[in-house]
Give the backbone structure.
Amino acid sequence: MQQQVHTAPTYEARSHSSSAFMYIGLFFGILACALVVFGVYFADTALFKNVPSASAAQAAVAPVERHAHLNLSIVINQPGLHKDWPAYTPTNLVVPANSLVTVTLRNYDLGDTPLPSNSPFTRVQGVTNGTAYADGKAYSSLAPEKVAHTFTIPALHLNVPVPGDGAKGASFLTVTFTFHTGKAGSYMFQCYDPCGTSSSGWMGPMMTKGYMMGTLTVQ
């Protein structure tokens, strides 16, 4: 029987085999590193996806709104003014833009001048919560026959009817209300109750600067 002779692998064959194992090992090493990197990335994403950034947190904090206070009066028979003509004082008002403004208005011209029954100026409009306060009592509208004056800024859709019936023995009635100012600008305010002269009530102080009209400057 012929004996088979087994020869050892040549050097060249061993070299090719070692290179193949090296490349396979290198491939799996790179794959393992990639899996680790992606694992860390997705873990971080899952962990922090609901945590807002510092800039986002700052943006979520609402800015503090400024709150200004304004004192205003309706007077009559004052020195330097026409007798029996009611007048706002002051007639040049200045308030900050983009702010809340609380107005305290004292009406020294008590007594009512009825408005037409269908007048839109009997309703409180354009103020916070649609409510004004007369000597602390809230109201959103007045009966047409219970209005003495109005504080109205048509360009801002703002209207507050001012009652003429004060407390017994009082010389004035206090009305308060709050409204928001927007961007800077100049606006006319005036009374839309016929409290002036002539048979119509729309002459005299209703048509004259320094009386029942003035300027609100928002800046």
